[in-house]
Amino acid sequence: MTSPPLVELEGLTRRYGDRAALERVSLNIGSGEFVALVGPSGSGKTTLLKSINRLVEPDEGIIRLGGRDVCERPVAELRRGIGYVFQGIGLFPHMDVAENIWMVPRLSGAAATGRDARVAELLELVALPPEFASRMPRALSGGQAQRVGVARALAAGPKLMLMDEPFGALDPVTRDDLGRAYRSVHDRLGLTTIMVTHDMAEALLLADRVVVLIDGRIRADATPAALVSGWNDPDVQALIEVPRRQAQALARLTP
Amino acid sequence: MNSALSEALAELPELVRAHLLVSGSAILIGVAVGLPLAIWAAGDRRARTPLLGLAGLIQTIPALALLALFYPMLLIAADVSGLAIPALGFLPALIALSLYALLPILRNGVAALQGVDPAVLEAADGVGMTRRQRLTMVELPLGAPVILAGIRTAAVWTIGAATLATTVGQSSLGNLIFSGLQTENWVRVLVGCAAAAALALAVDGLLALVESGLARRSRWRIRLGLAGIAAALGLAFLPIAAAGGGGETVVIGAKNFSEQYILASVIERRLQAAGYRTERRDNLGSTVAYEALAAGDIDVYVDYSGTLWTNILQRRDTPPPEAMRAALAEALRTRNGVRLLGPLGFENAYALAMRGERARALGVRTLDDLAGPAPRLRLGADLEFLTRPEWRSVREAYGLRFAEQRSYSPTFMYRAIADGSADVISAFSSDGRIAALDLVLLADPRRALPSYDAVLLVSPDHSEDRRLVEALRPLIGAIPVERMREANLMVDRDDDKMTPAEAARWLDPFTGRN
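Structure tokens for the assembled complex are given below, as produced in the milestone run.
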């Protein structure tokens, strides 16, 4: 990495009561990377992700985005510059698809004249037909709703995307479909993506780099290939074993 | 059309207007105060419990008591602050009804805001909404149906409870209900109830239209509903411009029984003949009426010398009528600046009464005669007589002990003596039913009961108002007890009932001379 990192975490600590969700975590993420944060439930991965757009305030540590401390700017302005997609999706149920997608530009004071064209463009990007613009969220399937969620996050043209178990609530086929579709959007738009998932297979197949968090500490930080070829930490190894065994079992079934 | 119905319908538009004014203002205040409180309480756990608890506590106070409470509280507030705070009429009714409207708005508001899907709130934060944007763009629109349901509940309650505003001197549809109840004029009661119910249903329907408009994103429904509500409020807030141009307005008070309604109507006729505009405050409680006069909330009403003597001056002696009136006039003038204009010419005293034949058979003509047979007789009293000082002094003066004592509402007390369930009752000497039922009033040779001359009282502001005094003076000494009894009977009897206004036209000594 020659250019300075887009996201820098330094000594990040967050405690809930006397349990530490993050214990002095430091991590740099370069522009254009697709990083998966993996770990068992309660490992601190969601806390880490939400610290970046300040949905969670860390007890200690510094987070820099493009070299600037995230606490320097008003929090609403910070968040409008970062795409955020999460498992709950959270489309605004009283607004149609176009209004949902156009929310961040609207909050930032963009002129409404560019709305329809931009919405159509974003719908195309997430592979939804343009007539979806006037639909209400309750008329969408889970997969369609999350595509709109991704389009909403992309609407203002952010460089950084934060995704918290984005496809976790979807059926396996839709999930696989959406994962690969998003990966191609990431590449086409030159985004930087940090995605939390508890599914190691998803992480290994989608990301360029996998960061394993266990008990609030980083226990592995490597490319998928490096991780799969063996890791000298039994807990990390156990996480990787699951998809590998499944893959081998599937391979044996093939005649 | 029967006269009671046409009279009730003639009063209806103005009463509907007054009713809408007080209940509409209360609901608006309820929303203006309740919604911000709900927003505060939804976001602040420490504020939520005490706020909801307080609003719930207010709700457990019966509406009638809540209204009654504000009368003394405002009197004290006026006293302490030295400001001219009206303790009667619009203000106490508005405060009490606004408090009453608060709970459903607050409770539903909190439920609405807490009921918003957490995922949607996370998305609102995630896209970079400020707290205010999140509230106005997400939480309030999504909570609107539940918030509106609370406003609908508040509107229906408040419009219903506003009928009770009559008791603190604020005109409302309750005027018809309360006066109808007192004079057993069921047409008035029905008209008042039906109008209040129709009003509540209409407002509820308009709000339901807005609610369904929000749910279906239908702008015309929202607009139509809001336009209907705005039109109703607009009508209510229109000034009473059409009430006959010019002329000073005099407010006439009345307590809550037929004779008082009739006399208030007679006074109204006199003042209107003299060119005044008049307003009525009917159904005032006994002490409330006097305090209201002293405070200037009403300008003129009729009270009874013995009542003022015992209740206001706290006296227990019973001087002769003229001496009592003179002492009373002096005491009320120095105490509150109230002017006692003079007696109307009849007395409405507490007196024990028996059926004529029964009294003759037992040889009872005075309370002295009653002491002997009393242990074999049953006493029927009105609801307050047995707890009043008058009863204590009669009982002690004559050594009366009855076989049985029962309390009735006045109407049923007369029924009880008519059908023999009671042998002796605590009658009112000007009551028309005394002659109608052939009752005799037992004489009080030991003067245990004070005299109860009907006297005309004028507020401090008008005590030196010559024009007003001259307009009223012809009533002094002009109403003999027989005529008052007959007028009362016209209103109280079951057949061929008249309204108090009709009885007043008959009773007015100057009818036909204007």
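The CA atoms of residues 232 and 295 of chain B lie 33 Å apart. Residues 249-348+451-507 of chain B form a domain with the D-Maltodextrin-Binding Protein; domain 2 fold (CATH 3.40.190.10). Further analysis is deferred to the final report.
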